[in-house]
SET domain-containing protein
Amino acid sequence: MAWLRRILKLQSTSQALGRFARSAGQHLGKKSSSVFEIRTSPGKGLGVFATKDIPRNADIMRDPPAFQTWNGEDLVERHRRFIMLPLKTRQNILKLSEGKSVLDYRPIVYARYPRNNKYERESILEIFKLEDIIDTNAFTIAHCNRLTAELFLNGCRINHSCIPNVDQVDNEGTGDLVMRANRDINAGEEITTSYIMRAAPREIRQRELSGRWGFACQCPACDLGHPFSRPHKQRLKALLRIYMNSVCYLGDDGRLKRPGTWSYAALERVTDSFRRRTELLTQHHSLRSFTREVYLGAFEVAIAKYKLRRVRSDLKEALKLLQLTIQAERIYFGEAIARSHEELYAKLEKGDISGV
């Protein structure tokens, strides 16, 4: 359990900083305009830049949605809702990045509607442009059991990096886009997020970015001439290899398959795979958001081990892993989810494993 002790030591060392960061986040969230600015990013159009030093785990922005859409909505009806927005909001939305120029649509529209007047033609062109902007910029947000595509006037200006310095985190039911620093960010530094699955191999990342957004990422993870690129590629390959070697034990959610059917020796091997995955994920700030899933899976394995032999050290290991899960949930998933595991923690501290 030396690996757990090292992680917990790091967590406890940063806990006071975490409290500071949370209070700083609340403060920053209220005065977001003083924390970042939107200006030109070389070679990328507009981007978002920090105007002051921002500590890790601080909220950088809490951006309310400017326009919300959902799959299957009639395009004309969507445009009708759009033109009901305040003029300034509409203008700002139409200034967001486009995958195509409106000139690309004109031959199609003019050929199909040759006799329509100028106003009708321009309305149809705006429908095309709005759809392009939504496809290029919208964030997917979960609302209960429905996914919506939403535009945020500040959030949609954040440029991509495969090793971003902010993560999108739980909005606690507000509907806002909440971006939180995953490392310390210096004043003047560009704020970046990831448009894709950042743990995918470089070739897949480049193909997806080029296919949908039309650019080749040149972040340190993608620039083959950068000294960071090779070790990060090896890190991702090692993560994939460990995952593939453990699929017989773990489900798609990272949790133990068929609990109660494994031998203690088999569970020890799964524990080792979780340990190696955790060490790799905690090596770089851009991967730490995935640790919650690993901690939770390792917790289930530790409980399974305890049920087999009733060894007190296995229960202690489970408690430490649940503590790490709760800390990760507070950062990325919100207090409501963390609270349910806090109740479980209190129960396990008393040695009660019923229902686990």
